[in-house]
Design goal:
Elements (H helix, E strand, L loop, with lengths): L2 H14 L17 H4 L1 H5 L3 E5 L15 H7 L4 E7 L3 E8 L2 E8 L4 E8 L6 H10 L4 E10 L4 E8 L4 E7 L4 E7 L2
Antiparallel strand pairs: 1-2, 2-3, 3-4, 4-5, 5-6, 6-7, 7-8, 8-9
Amino acid sequence: MNNNSFFAVILSLTVSGSAFANNSAPASPYSNGIAHIFHLNTLSNKTVVGSIKNTTGSSDIPFFKGKDHFERKFPEATEVDCKNKGQFTEVNFVWNGIRLQAFYDLAGEPVATSRFVALNNLPLFVQMSLKKEYPSYVITEASEFTDADDGLCYYVAVAGPKNSYLLHVSTSGTISVFKKMKQ
């Protein structure tokens, strides 16, 4: 995946997560962290391709490039909502009781899949790395991100006394600042 696609997906992920906050997430975690970061940057690119509550099977999913792949990978997806986000299509849906997002490029190739993670469900290595590197910061929200090559990482919003950050956490526990946020 090229860097532009990767960043576009992350930007979209940060915007649309609030619409898919679910029961497993802490109460109201999306009010100002990840969901707020890039809202203005991507709002103008948001065009609805189709929206449908799919409760009877994948045949009711609106057409988008990559639909065949999506139907094979998530055959029992429900509550499917597709949005064209400029360079890619974002598909929000429920699969196996989990709210997910899948991203496809303009050619219909899969780019990534993501989901918001309840803070207490972050892997232990992520929690330990954050506690070590950002001991005076509070985790406000998190998402799990899997690219098309099954590369896994986490994006975690943290708030401190003077600064807030959106952090990228690798599966090895390495933390880097993805975005510094205004307080």
